[in-house]
Amino acid sequence: MALPSGPAAEGSVCEESVCEGVYKGVCEVEDPGAAPFGNFINYYSFNPPENRLELIPASLLQQLGLNPDPDPVLLLDVGCNSGDLSIALYKHLLQDHLSDRGSPGNVHLLGFDLDQDLISRAQDSNPFPQNIRFIPLDITQQESHAELRAYLQKFGRRRFHLCSCFAVTMWVHLNHGDAAFLALLSGLASLSEYLLLEVQPWKCYRSAARRLRKLGRSDFEHFKTLQIRGDMATHAKDHLEQRCSMQLAQSFGWTSWDRSVLLFRRR
Ligand SMILES: C[S@@+](CC[C@H](N)C(=O)[O-])C[C@H]1O[C@@H](n2cnc3c(N)ncnc32)[C@H](O)[C@@H]1O
C-alpha cells in the first residue's frame, strides 16, 4: 500500500513551535530547553488526545480481530508522557465494552516514558490500575526490551497485540541518531503484531533545532549529520516493510498538525 500524499507541505504546527508560541508563558517559566526529549510538561494542553483519536476508529480492536475473551489483549504505548493519550485511547477502543460491562475486562495497556515525573503523574491519574500500568523506561536502552519481554511473559505472549508510538520518533532520532531511529522501528516491530505510528515530519526537526538555538543551547547532537531526512513517514514505512516484516495496513489520515497516523501489521 502506498502512502497518501500530505495535505500541506510547510508552515504547519509542531510541538516545539506551539510550545514557543501559544504556551510561551508556561515554557519560559518551565524552560523548554529542559524538555530535550519532547518531555513537555503540558503537552496535552496544546495537543489534546482528540487530535489523534478522531482519526482512529473506536472499533479498531474488533476490526483487527482482537477479542479480549478469553485471552488477554495487550497494548503498549511508547513515550506516553503524562498518560493522557494512553488513557484516552484505551477508553476510546473499549467504549462499547465499558458501557456494556462497566469494566474494561481483559484488555491491558502498558505505557512507558523516560521521564519519571511524567510517569508519576500518569500513575496518579490512572483510572484502571488493574488494567493499565505506567513505568519509566528509555526505549533506547538495551535493558528496556528485556523489561518489555518480561511483561509479555507474564501473559504468556511474545508480542503486544497493538503498539502505539505517537510523536516519539523525532526525539529518539535527534538525540541518538540514524541508527537509533531505525533500531526504534525495528524494536517496536519485533514487539508487536500491529503498530500504530505517528512520525514527526522533517519540518518539525528544523523547528526543534531552531528552538534550541534561540535558547542559546548547542544543537541536538545528531541534527546536522542525520542522513535519514526529508519524507520521514516514507523512511519509516520503507524500513518497516523492507527490514521488519511489517506491512502498511491502513492510513488513518492526517492530524490537525499534518501528521499521518499509520497502521502497520506483521506480514
Ligand atoms: C512529544 S511527546 C508525545 C507524547 C505522546 N506519545 C503523545 O503523542 O501524546 C514525546 C514523548 O516521548 C518521550 N520519549 C522521548 N524519547 C524517549 C525514549 N528514548 N524512551 C521513552 N520515551 C521517550 C518523551 O519523554 C515525551 O514524553
UniProtKB/TrEMBL annotation:
Matches recorded under CDD domains: AdoMet_MTases (cd02440)
Gene3D superfamilies: Vaccinia Virus protein VP39 (3.40.50.150)
Catalytic activity: a 5'-end 5'-phospho-ribonucleoside-RNA + S-adenosyl-L-methionine = a 5'-end (5'-methylphospho)-ribonucleoside-RNA + S-adenosyl-L-homocysteine; a 5'-end 5'-phospho-ribonucleoside-RNA + 2 S-adenosyl-L-methionine = a 5'-end (5'-bismethylphospho)-ribonucleoside-RNA + 2 S-adenosyl-L-homocysteine
Gene Ontology terms: cellular component: cytoplasm
Keywords, in A-Z order: Cytoplasm, Methyltransferase, S-adenosyl-L-methionine, Transferase
Top-level taxon of the source organism: Eukaryota
Residue ranges of every copy of the Bin3-type SAM domain listed in the record: 50-267
InterPro entries from the UniProt entry: Bin3-like, Bin3_C, BIN3_SAM-bd_dom, SAM-dependent_MTases_sf
Major subcellular location class: cytoplasm
The enzyme's E.C. designation: 2.1.1.-
Keyword Disulfide bond: no
Matches recorded under Pfam families: Bin3
Coiled-coil annotated residue ranges, if any: none
Compartments (UniProt record): Cytoplasm
GO MF term list: O-methyltransferase activity; RNA methyltransferase activity
Family: Belongs to the methyltransferase superfamily.
Function: O-methyltransferase that specifically monomethylates 5'-monophosphate of cytoplasmic histidyl tRNA (tRNA(His)), acting as a capping enzyme by protecting tRNA(His) from cleavage by DICER1. Also able, with less efficiently, to methylate the 5' monophosphate of a subset of pre-miRNAs, acting as a negative regulator of miRNA processing. The 5' monophosphate of pre-miRNAs is recognized by DICER1 and is required for pre-miRNAs processing: methylation at this position reduces the processing of pre-miRNAs by DICER1.
PANTHER family: BICOID-INTERACTING PROTEIN RELATED, RNA 5'-MONOPHOSPHATE METHYLTRANSFERASE
Protein known as: RNA methyltransferase
Organism expressing this protein natively: Astyanax mexicanus
